[in-house]
Specification:
This protein has 334 residues and is α+β, with helices and mostly antiparallel strands. It has helices at residues 5-18, 23-38, 49-58, 86-104, 121-129, 181-189, 210-216, 225-242, 247-253, 270-273, 276-291, 307-319, 325-332; strands spanning 2-3, 68-73, 76-80, 106-115, 132-138, 144-145, 152-154, 159-163, 170-174, 199-200, 206-207, 259-269, 321-322. A 7-stranded mixed sheet has the order 2-3-4-12-5-8-9, with helices on both faces. Strands 1-13 form a two-stranded antiparallel ribbon. A hairpin with a 6-residue loop joins strand 8 and strand 9 (170-174). Helix 1 crosses helix 2 (23-38). The longest helix is centred in the N-terminal third of the chain and has 19 residues, at 86-104. The protein is globular and about 55 Å long. The two termini are 19 Å apart.
Length: 334
């Protein structure tokens, strides 16, 4: 089943208004959910939408709350998310970082007490679309074991890096786990196996079975000990800069609900720090060099980060966004 972009956005907007959002805020949040789905990140778009509504109903998300500034020092600012809608808070803070960058070459906004931002890549694309290099990350519930451990004490803390490019921004969006829990959930819904091992089963064996990984919560860190170390440092930096909760503290709040998170948004204005022609040439040189790699399989193209997203976006805008009928029916019945 496919749903066209405008129809999906209107459905999200309808539900959000019903839950108490103003029309303007409902429109902005619905657009972010729909763009995420259109770009092929279904796990953090329409698939996650019903859970967000549950969070609103439970009081974890304040539909009227907006970020408030705590303090600012030059190009660095601290903000409190006041438990507002996660994707709206994140979009606001990246916009604030971009404005700081336009005045100072670089801008950094640290956000505490916020909700799940849905697809973190949205804010990398936001920065790159404005001509800025974008860097942002969030901490999460303790949902991943540290390297060598069995129990979940660190977060999979997604990191996003983005570089602007006229012919298509270069954007990478990755959790510190080999696969996000959203990707694991969608793979299970599709009755598929993960393409490479993503965690451990109940017997301690490495597996590609998403159902087994969901049972144990023993997701595999990217690069093994390297992903584990990156997760811990991203969490620490977000906690220190924002004055908010660490993944450890987030886990102490409820144990299952993911809210009161800490996030970082950095923008660097490329027009201020680099000649536009140099930027264009340097980025295209790297991209062209990568795409001209000798292929393992001649039938499989080499993609730069963000290219498949652009291809999926174009396809889904033309043909409609593919959805699981049961989940879409659930949304329509809210």
């Amino acid at each position: 089943m496919r749903v066209f972009f405008e129809d999906m956005r209107n459905e999200f907007k309808r539900v959000l208004i019903k839950k108490g959002f103003s029309e303007e805020r409902a429109e902005a949040s619905a657009k972010l959910f729909t763009e995420t789905s259109c770009d092929g990140v279904y796990s953090h778009g329409y698939v996650r939408f019903p859970r967000v509504i549950e969070y609103i109903d439970k009081g974890y998300i304040d539909v009227n709350a907006v970020p408030s500034k705590v303090e600012g020092i030059g190009a660095f600012e601290k903000w409190d998310g006041n438990l507002g809608m996660g994707n709206l808070n994140a979009e606001f803070c990246m916009d604030r970082a971009i404005k700081l960058a336009k005045s100072n070459a670089i801008g950094c906004v640290a956000l505490k007490n916020t909700n799940h931002w849905m697809r973190g890549g949205s804010y990398g694309w936001q920065a790159a679309d404005s001509g800025c290099i974008g860097i942002c990350w969030t901490n999460t519930l303790p949902n991943m074991p540290a390297w060598g451990a069995k129990d979940t004490r660190i977060g999979n803390n997604p990191l996003i890096l983005a570089v602007p490019r006229e012919d298509g921004n270069v954007v990478v969006d990755l959790a510190m786990a080999q696969f996000s829990y959203g990707k694991i959930e969608v793979t299970k819904l599709n009755n598929e196996q993960l393409p490479v091992p993503g965690g451990y089963d109940s017997n301690g064996n490495i597996t590609m079975d998403p159902s087994e990984i969901e049972k144990t919560s023993r997701v595999l860190p990217i690069g093994y000990w390297k992903g584990s170390g990156l997760s811990i440092l991203l969490d620490l930096i977000a906690t220190i800069l924002s004055g908010g909760n660490s993944s450890y503290k987030v886990g102490m709040i409820d144990g299952k609900a993911e809210y009161q998170l800490s996030q970082i948004f950095i923008a660097i204005d490329t027009k201020t720090i680099s000649d536009n022609e140099f930027l264009k040439t340097a980025v295209n040189e790297v991209i062209n060099n990568v795409k001209n790699s000798e292929r393992v399989d001649q039938n499989k193209e080499i993609f730069y980060p963000g290219e498949r997203t652009l291809n999926t976006r174009k396809k889904n805008k033309k043909n409609g966004i593919p959805v699981d009928e049961k989940i879409w029916e659930k949304i329509k019945n809210i």
